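[stage:ingest] chain + small molecule (magnesium ion)
[stage:ingest] validated
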Amino acid sequence: MAKATEVNDGLELGKPYFCTECNRSHVKGKIYKDHISFATFGNKKDEELKDENITSDEDFEDEAELIEAFSELSEEQDELEDDFELIGEDDSEEIDTGKAAVKKLPGVGEATLNKLIKAGFSSLESIAFTPPKVIMDESGLGEKTTSKLVKASMDKLNLGFKSAEDVWEHRKNIARITTSSQELDDVLGGGAETGSLLEFFGEFRTGKTQICHQLCVNVQLPKEKGGLGGRALYIDTEGTFRPERIIHMAEALDLDHKKVLKNIIFGRAYNSDHQIVLIKEAANLIKEKNIKLIIVDSLIGHFRSEYIGRGTLANRQQTINAHMHDLLRLTDIHTELAIVVTNQVQSKPDTFYGNPLKAAGGNIVAHGSTIRVFLRKGKGEQRVAKVVDAPHLPEAEAIFCITENGITD
Ligand code: GTP
Ligand code: MG
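[stage:predict] done
[stage:export] tokens:
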């Protein structure tokens, strides 16, 4: 494929010419999907060209409104930022693939950038890993613009095949959050791992919510103490988040409970739509707020109570599927992020052999979760955790306890 600059040589901006590469008429200076990776325009500055020659089908009428909304959002985020102080601040250096890189994509002017950011697409990864249809629906951008952006982001990130050795290099960088129980950590391969979706399912009072609370405290610890030096984002769908439990757990670890509480960003989801929106909004906070753990407690409670009757089943499963993909995509985009969800169980009375309790949500949730752990009650404070589905871990059981101080062996 020839470079756009070469094909255009000798013509004035805005003049038509015939492109022999794709046998179509082009206009000099416009960016075309087929030539996007070569869309550089010699002596004109990128910024000038973007403003003059965007071949998108979006309209810019509400630009002022968007800019205003965006600046309000940034102010709110700045205020929020002032309130936080981290215990184990992460100082790892990363190549920038964030907002600045998105701004440099071909065809991205101020209005497009604002639309992308408002919809949660503030990094090259978030654009490259999201289906174009989802980007279009959520940002309001047109089909052409979206496919151009996705392709350009993929090119910039060099996405494609890689060797198993590269995959191994990547897996060696996986970090884990301790659960505070050595036994439970052991069966999980070291704790809740980054890049995965870990699901705890079990009957009521089996410790699902307690484990979530403990992980929110532990993620803040420095790496050498079993944390990731980051913040937690807690999405509570059942109204069972208890700051007093966080205080107990923080004090048991000799941490300043005020700081620990500040480092947990809390969102109460009142219905399934709200839960979906909260996760979409979370996408924008992860990098800025150094979030290393997302909790959804519980994943499908709202869906189960809202979609009632056989006729709604297909619709419900589709919505849960999209929601799980939103979550999984976050782990692809943010490699230092762990996601932990809880799930209820349903009884299968026709089971004659094995466990009659099955995780709710059917195959959709089963396929979405990377690691599934079944919890059941033991004697007194004891609980039993069984890893039932994991790509790299054997089926194994661990016994842990729930005490006033949190999770222990
Ligand atoms: P559902 O959300 O109802 O499905 O249950 P769950 O699995 O989330 O249960 P959760 O994690 O809330 O566990 C509740 C259990 O934790 C209680 O029954 C107690 O046994 C235990 N627990 C909670 N707080 C304390 C505490 O302060 N001290 C002690 N010793 N145990 C506690
Ligand atoms: Mg619970």
